Batch of 3 targets.
Target 1
Amino acid sequence: MRLKIDEKADALYLRLDDSKVMESEEVSTGVVLDFNEQNQVVGVEILQLSKRTPKLNVHELQFYTA
């Protein structure tokens, strides 16, 4: 799993695996899901990140596993 934050584009991209993206669908304004050929979600893109999470400091992200 990889997380990429593009400050210039104001976007976050979460890639779940390395499958080839066959289709993308905007499921909500500025939220795009990428699907592989088995129709599984392999990526999530969130646009206008700073407007959605105004207090987010991208330099201090924390990750947890349960």
Target 2
Amino acid sequence: QDENKALNSETRFLLDTACTVSADCDDETLSGAFAVCEELEKLLSRTVKGSDVYRLNETDGFVSVSDDTLRLLEKSVYYENLTDGKFDITVCPVSELWDFKNQIVPSRSEIAEALKSVDYHSIEIKENTANLHGKKIDLGGIAKGYTSSRVMQIFKEYGIEHGMVNLGGNVQTLGTKTDGTAWRVAIQSPQGGNQYLGILETSDQAVITSGGYERYFEENGVTYHHIIDPKTGYPSDSDLTSVTIVCADGTKADALSTSFFVMGLQKAESF
């Protein structure tokens, strides 16, 4: 293959963000990668009526779900146990109270009430079915990383050697660029704007960042960001403003970037 040939690249709006796929492939293969992203969005979105997650949240008892949803639920439970609940997909009732669009801080009593419904131990998986036992889940903290891993899988099935997917700043790469050099991934500065902390050179890795600067508002001199601590129900009050995980598994990188952000520096480092 010509190592200097240009990559085929396209951007679409998916998973509530700009989604860019680039690879040394034809348009049809690129569309195949986007089809996977679209399919996963239909399965994993909390707000799309009829999605697996929507049905799980609205149904008492066991619900049959797709292999992808099942795999992601299993991985979620694994990381919930591993991080002692710093990562918790059942935090949904609490995060729903925080309205970042209208900048509303919920009352202490509302948060206390919603916290009663947060418990990842309630998720039960049996064969190809799952039962939330009255809890509600949101896979937003892990779905993008899982999606990027699935795109890498598709690339490999198509025999692609050079590829990259960027889901709103969550990046995963396959191989190197076509000229043999490493992919360069810019890490956004928590100060915002167009500033970068630095550029990572990487190949065959996911680079996933969680930062409180992505969605936040200020009220009475207090800054509230969107990464909720499942134990307190409030935005995580750790000493970290941004966490970037680099590893081969996008799902792991996504779950751990959120967990470490909540844990704070000392616990994250020892973890």
Target 3
Amino acid sequence: FPEGEANSYINLAANYLVLGEPERAKDHLLAAEGMLEGDAWFRWVYNIRLQAKFAEYWMARGDLQRAATYIAASLELARSTKRRKHIAWAQKLLGDVAAMEERHEQAVHDYEAGLSALKDHPCPSVQWKILLSLANSKESLHKSDEAYRCRALAQELMRRLAESISEGRLRTTFLRSKPAR
């Protein structure tokens, strides 16, 4: 199934980005892109993620202008298909670019827009990441109380996610892991 293989390449790219190895991520992104070009089935779902991961790749490389181009493509695809989780993630990425450029007011606006997209359709696995980024921008704006509230909400979401893990050892590992700030 080409779409499953393409999704696997996107997942591998995400892992390499987290590990700080963007060049290895790029190889997998290009492989996913090639697979998606050849198969139209479910391309729209994986292409949203592919555009977002390319944005994250370019952010890791420090090319924020190219990242913004991929974010815009991801956001447009997500909006046109009403994929709220992906809309929220694209808004988070916009906030990340703004934060990297030290435009923290804009970052706060973008992060809040991402959270707003999930208001009636919660997605804790995305929300807690947005909340941590929002907390960091609030902290940069010297709004410590608001930053504290955002971090507390993120921790509560992580606790609830952990409760959904039935295997005890895995749940403990998840709870002990330190989330990226």
